[in-house]
Design goal:
Strand content: 15-25%
Largest sheet: 5 strands, antiparallel
Distance between the termini: 70 Å
Helix content: 25-40%
Radius of gyration: 38 Å
Structural class: alpha+beta
Oligomer: single chain
Number of helices: 20
Number of strands: 29
Shape: elongated
Length: 826
């Protein structure tokens, strides 16, 4: 499930380098001369601080730079000491060290503190100052305030004692009194460059009584000299933050006697906490009380990992349903590079440290494993496949090769699953990925899964075998002091927590595209209306559409594989504009803080990305089945590959129609072309009658001009014509070179002209004598004279019918007569 990439190896990157340097000066001749090499701390810049003891009786501290992959000696103690904590300032001039002191036999009568904390000036002069000599362990850490200055005039040192005191020291050693951490209250303290510190945030936590018998400060280095009785952890707690303004407090306790483990994720930005209970597989272990999972941040997922038992990727932004968080157990929850006896610590930036081997790893989701989960359609539950699909689409990011594999999987599994529609999930999750980083509160107003479109969540998605989850509202966090006016993380976190109260109070804050269906039905009616007010509304909708399509046109469309965006599709253009209108209205109502301009840009971009996403889906399907330009020819029968593409396109149409999502202009024309090629004629007409295929003007025009007038084609054309709206039928008849279409054109022309003639008062038939006038058939002659007379009086009576006049009507009438009498073929 997880993919580990080694970034540091203590033996290869440090020990071998030390040996080479020491051997060149003749100090040591074999690796055994370098003993007890241990990692002490990982600094903010990624540098690794470590210590080692040599045969000369000294202890040395060095630094490994991951950028240059070079090692540097920082300081040498002239005797062997036990370094329990260490930190280096940004300028590499000061070294803070905590030494664990053990009482020797001859010194038992002298009082000796258990921990000695030193501040060592390593450049330019080795001055040393004792900061603390106490009977409890002290961790040291230089902190780096965010500043735009190139050089910092002072360094800030943080001292954290296991008895709960925290101190900050400024060099030149301006001391600030520490702050005690209250029981069951999480406090966040901001240390400022003006020598002050302030509590910005407090959160009450529902923790068991006396949860901490010992403390291990993961982010403040690693103490290899802890007392034996302190090595067993009764509880593990981690605080995880994200720049978008999310905060998670994760804690767990060892497995109970009944082999059940519980862990809690407090979603501060969501105002709730989730406690998961998982029954561990296998026989009860006598050491079950030592089983504590790791909490590993990966993007906005929190991975809960217990080797061989569980691996739970918890979605901290879409936490409502279990099916959007991936749960694995048994062999799926193994990380091969980590042994069963490994002592592993979770570090920031999605990293792990194996203290036994001295190796560090970056942690990432394994896309190959996730794709295998999708393909195991029979052995995996739907909830697991849905969670894997969301991991691939949301976390893995815009990866063209990966997206192609997912589309390929959709083609091979084109029918919807029992509990979810994979095409709908692909569209909504992909769109959500494009905007989720812009604002945390967009999670609550924009769709990311089609599951919420259902009236009731299917049971297969609401439950995960072996896992129970309880959700509770936690105490409201308290923001203090400067947190009210700070920007960045604290501002976003505060706004998110306040906004959650609003979302809980208002009905339906999440935008559901299917709710546009009533408005879409009204708009279809408006398209057929000639109401001036309706025309104004249509112009407004069309302006929205133009903004979207202009953005699509500006993207990479030069290599067009599929002929889309090349025609006027009035219905789809109207649906595009309607979606822009409704989504803009929804965001302005629920997130006015974003501002109208930002919302306008976001909405137009969202709808444009939707059209572009469907285009990419079609292009991938087109390339998968190796279709070429010949598929656009109506004269040939379709192949099996074209039938497969037609089937996928029908499923895309079904998925988008249910959600009331627009399609790129030209989609319906392309689908109808494939329908004519792949379906029997009567089946094609049934697809039209049931609304699956639409008779767009572009498609019908090509049908009339590309197909000859054989009996079968003539029957199809007549069947299509009678299904067209009257206005479109009149336009299409002009394109079909056929006596029947000519007769229809003539009748419409005569009817319109005579209606106009009847309304004209005082009009009289006037005799005319023109060359070439044929009086053989007096009724036709009389009608022709009337039409010629009205034509002379009318000013452009039928501009849209430039090739229709009285002569055309006369010729058509004569031809029809000859055909009826059997003197001429059609």
């Amino acid at each position: 499930m997880l993919q580990l990439s080694a970034t540091f190896d203590l033996q290869q990157d440090v020990v071998s380098s030390i040996f080479k340097k020491e051997a060149t000066v003749g100090r040591i001749k074999e690796y055994s001369g370098i003993v007890d090499t241990r990692i002490l701390n990982i600094e903010r810049d990624g540098g690794v601080l470590y210590s080692w003891k040599g045969t000369t009786g000294t202890t040395r501290i060095g630094k490994y730079d991951p950028n240059t992959r070079q090692n540097k000696l920082l300081y040498t103690f002239d005797k062997q000491v036990c370094v329990s904590s260490c930190s280096l300032n940004k300028e590499e001039t000061l070294l803070a060290v905590s030494l664990a002191q053990r009482t020797r036999t001859e010194e038992r009568l002298r009082p000796v503190s258990k921990c000695l904390t030193l501040l060592i000036e390593i450049h330019p002069i080795n001055n040393t100052k004792v900061l603390k000599a106490v009977d409890c362990r002290v961790r040291v850490q230089f902190i780096h305030p965010d500043t735009e200055r190139d050089s910092v005039l002072e360094s800030h040192l943080l001292l954290v004692a296991e008895d709960g005191y925290v101190e900050q020291l400024h060099v030149m050693l301006v001391r600030q009194e520490g702050y005690r951490v209250e029981k069951a209250v999480l406090k966040c303290v901001q240390f400022c460059h003006d020598h002050n510190c302030e509590t910005l945030f407090e959160l009450e936590l529902e923790l068991p009584s006396n949860p901490f018998t010992c403390m291990r400060f993961v982010n403040l280095g690693f103490d290899h000299h802890q007392e034996t009785q302190h090595e067993r952890e009764e509880m593990r707690m981690v605080v995880i933050t994200n720049k978008t303004g999310s905060m998670c407090v994760c804690y767990s306790q060892p497995a109970c006697a009944d082999q059940e483990i519980k862990y809690t994720i407090v979603l501060v930005h969501r105002g709730c906490s989730k406690t998961f209970s998982v029954a561990l597989d296998g026989t009860p272990s006598p050491c079950s009380t030592d089983l504590l999972p790791l909490f590993i941040p990966i993007g906005y997922y929190v991975v809960v990992y217990l080797s061989g038992h569980l691996l739970h990727c918890i979605n901290t932004r879409q936490q409502e349903l279990l099916c959007h968080s991936l749960f694995l157990s048994g062999v799926d929850a193994e990380l091969g590079v980590l042994g069963s006896d490994s002592v592993v610590l979770s570090l920031p930036e999605s990293s792990l440290l194996d203290l036994n081997t001295g190796r560090m790893f970056t942690v990432d989701l394994n896309p190959s494993f996730l794709m295998d989960l999708l393909h195991c359609s029979h052995s995996r539950p739907d909830a697991q496949r849905l969670a894997a699909l969301h991991c691939l689409l949301l976390y893995m990011g815009p990866n063209a090769a990966l997206q192609l594999k997912i589309i390929d999987w959709i083609c091979d599994n084109v029918m919807p699953f029992d509990t979810f529609d994979q095409i709908q999930e692909f569209i909504l999750a992909s769109l959500y990925r494009l905007i989720y980083k812009k604002c945390l509160s967009l999670d609550e107003v924009l769709p990311y899964s089609s599951v919420f479109e259902k009236k009731k969540v299917p049971e297969g998605l609401d439950q995960v075998p072996g896992v129970t989850c309880t959700t509770e509202l936690h105490a409201e966090p308290v923001f203090k002091g400067k947190a009210r006016s700070l920007q960045g993380f604290w501002e976003e976190l505060q706004w998110s927590t306040e906004k959650m109260k609003y979302f809980e109070a208002v009905p339906n804050p999440r935008y559901r595209t299917s709710q546009n269906l009533p408005d879409w039905t009204k708009l279809l009616t408006t398209l057929k209306s000639e109401n001036k007010k309706a025309s104004n509304y249509l112009r407004h909708i069309e302006e929205n559409t133009k903004q979207v399509l202009s953005m699509v046109d500006s993207w990479n469309l030069d290599q067009k594989v599929v002929p889309l965006f090349q025609e006027e599709d009035s219905q789809q253009r109207a649906l595009i504009g309607l979606m822009v209108d409704k989504l803009r209205e929804h965001l302005n109502r629920h997130l006015p803080r974003l501002g109208k301009k930002k919302i306008d840009v976001l909405v137009v971009n969202y709808v444009a990305k939707l059209l572009e996403l469907i285009r990419r889906m079609l292009e991938s399907v087109w390339l998968k089945y190796k279709l070429g330009p010949l598929v656009l020819c109506l004269k040939q029968q379709g192949s099996s590959a074209e039938w497969a593409v037609f089937h996928v396109m029908c499923r895309i149409l079904e998925a988008t129609k249910t959600l009331c999502l627009p399609l790129p202009p030209g989609y319906h024309t392309l689908l109808s072309v494939l329908g004519v090629r792949c379906l029997p004629r009567h089946t094609f007409l049934q697809y039209v009658d049931h609304g699956v295929l639409q008779l767009t003007e572009t498609f019908v025009s090509r049908l009339m001009t590309d197909l000859d007038n054989s009996d079968a084609n003539e029957e199809l054309k007549f069947s299509v014509l009678k299904r067209l709206p009257e206005r479109m039928e009149q336009r299409i008849c002009h394109l079909w070179d056929h006596p029947i279409s000519s007769a229809c054109i003539s009748r419409d022309y005569v009817r319109g002209l005579l209606e106009k003639h009847a309304k004209t008062k005082g009009s009289m038939f006037m005799e005319r004598d023109e060359p070439g006038f044929r009086p053989e058939f007096l009724p036709l002659t009389f009608l022709t004279k009337i039409l010629l007379d009205v034509e002379d009086r009318a000013l452009n009576p039928f501009e849209e019918q430039e090739n229709v006049d009285a002569r055309f009507v006369e010729e058509t009438a004569l031809k029809q007569t000859l055909i009826l009498l059997g003197f001429q073929d059609k």
